[in-house]
Amino acid sequence: xxxxxxxxxxxxxxxLQILQMLQKVERLFTRESSRIDIESQILLNSIADQKxxxxxxxxxxxxx
Length: 64
Fold this sequence. Notes:
This protein is mainly α. The protein has helices at 2-5, 15-63. It contains 2 helices and no strands.
């Protein structure tokens, strides 16, 4: 991460570079958290769909 953010390759980071590094980390974390939230919701929807389908088939079997 240090090498990625040490823009002038002087082996040191000034306060501005540290701030920029932290901002990049925050953006990456936010993006990854959003992706995980979306994937979790997709998984929950898939499970709910499967349960609804199983219930539908169960009700049809009981009615017959």
